[in-house]
Amino acid sequence: MKTIRNPPPRLRNIDVYDSEWSLRNFANPQGRFGTSNLSVSLEFLSSRSPELFFSLSARPNFVIRPNPSSSSLMATHLQVSENAPSEELQPSSSRAIGEHDLLIVGPGVLGRLVAEKWREEYPGCQIYGQTVTTDHHEELIKMGINPSLKWTEATQKFPHVIFCAPPTRSSDYPGDLRLAALRWNGEGSFLFTSSSAPYACDDNGPCDEDSPVVPIGRSSRTDVLLKAENVVLEYDVIAMMLISLVNLDFLNKDGKGAHAYWLEKGIVESRPDHILNLIHYEDAATLSIAILKKKLRKRIFLGCDNHPLSRQEVMDLVNQSGKFSKKFEKFTGSDDPLGKRLNNSRTREEIGWEPKYTSFAFFLETL
Questions:
Q1: What percent of the chain has pLDDT over 70?
Q2: Does the residue 89 lie in any domain?
C-alpha cells in the first residue's frame, strides 16, 4: 500500500447538476496519493463528456468526463510556460493586497460564483482573475474581477488563491499549478479544485475521501490529474478539493448539465445504470469558500450532494418533473464503464457545510 507525504487539502470534482464534489483528506497516511505531494482537483462533467453535467469534482469528475472539445461549462483553462510572454497582474495602484484579497486561476462558471460569494463575505476585498485569453476580460471587469492574461514573475502574492482551471487547454498542467502556487503568500489558503476521476472505483461501488486511487500509468486522463496533485503536494501547506466531473452533473440557472444534453438528444448510446454523483455550481462555490476560510493544510475534501443516481434515474426524474417540454426516450449502451457512489459525510462534518440543493430531485423542484 502506498504511503502519503502529508498532502495539502484538495477538492475533487463531481458531476454537477450542478453535481457532486469529492474532497479528499491527505492527512490520512492511507489516502489516495502516493509518496509525493498532492493537490486538490475538481471535475466537471459538462465540458469533458456529453454525458456529464458541468461537474466540479475533484475528479472531473475538475475531472469532468465531458468531451475535451466542449468547454462551455468549464472554467478557462490555463496554458503557460516559464518562457511565455507576460502581462502584469497588478492590483490597483492605490491599494496594496489585503488580507482578504483573492486570486482566481481560471475564472469560469465556478470561479465567478466563488468571486461573487467571496465578495459577499468580504465587502471591499480585491479579486483577481488569471485567464488564458482576453475573450472574457470585459465580462470579468463588469463583475468586479481584475483580469490578467498569462503569468508573470511572482512579485505580487495573494493570501488566498483558488485554482479552478481545467487541464484540457493546458500543455503543462502541473507547471500551471506550480506557477499558481508561486502567487500565494502562504498566509491564507490555496485551494486546488480537481476531480474524483482518479479514485480506483469503476463498479458503481462506494467511495469516500480516503478511497484508494489508480496508479499513474493507468490512463492519460487520470495521469494528468495525479501529476498535478503531486505538484500541489510539494507545497505542504496547500489544500485540495476533489469534485467528480465524470460522475458529477452540475446544473446551473441556465439549464446546463448532462440532463439537458441527454434530453436534447432523446436517445443516448450510454449504459443507463452508470452512477453519477452530483453537485450544484452554487454549492461547489460555497464549499470552496468554506474550505478557504478554514485555512486548512495537507487535506483533501470531496464535493457532492450525497445522493448518487444512475443515468436512468436522472432522466426518469427529468421526465416526471413536468418542467420540460421534451421527453427523454432511452439509453442504449451496455459496454461503457460504470461509475462510483461518492459520500462526503466527513467533509461536511469537518468543514461545517451543507448544500443548498440537497439532491437532483430538489434542484428540479426549484426550476
A1: 67
A2: no
Q: Is 248 exposed, middle or buried (0-12, 13-18, 19+ CB in 10 A)?
A: buried
In the chain, how many domains are there? Answer: 1
- pLDDT at residue 150 in the model: 67
Task: Please state, in angstroms and rounded to a whole number, the distance separating the CA atoms of residues 65 and 8.
Answer: 25
Query: Tell me, what amino acid is at 74?
Result: M
Question: Is pLDDT larger for residue 42 or for residue 129?
Answer: 129
pLDDT at position 38 is 27
Q: Strand runs (DSSP E) across 90-233, as ranges?
A: 102-105, 127-131, 145-149, 158-163, 184-192, 205-207
> Would 197 be classed as within a structural domain?
yes
The rounded Cα 41 to chain-centroid distance in angstroms is: 6
In a domain, 4, yes or no: no
Average pLDDT over residues 42-56: 30
Are 247 and 63 a contacting pair, CB within 8 Å? no
Which three three-digit cell numbers place residue 296? 486548512
Q: Tell me which DSSP letter residue 169 carries.
A: G
Q: Please state the separation of Cα 203 from the chain's center in Å.
A: 23
Tell me, what CATH number does 352's domain have?
Answer: 3.40.50.720
SS3 content of the chain, % helix, strand, coil (to 5): 25, 20, 55
199-225: average pLDDT: 93
Mean pLDDT of the chain: 75
Structural domain span for residue 160: 9-82+94-365
Provide the pLDDT for residue 79.
30
Mean pLDDT calculated for residue range 125-130: 95
Whole-angstrom CA distances from 48 to 44, 54, 64, 96 are 7, 8, 5, 38
**Helix, strand or coil for residue 57?**
strand
Q: Please name every residue paired with 185 in a beta bridge, in sequence order, or none if there are none.
A: none
Question: What is the SS3 assignment for 101?
Answer: coil
Strand partners, 276: 309
Tell me the C-alpha distance between 34 and 270, whole Å.
33
Does the residue 88 lie in any domain? no
DSSP assigned state of 22: E
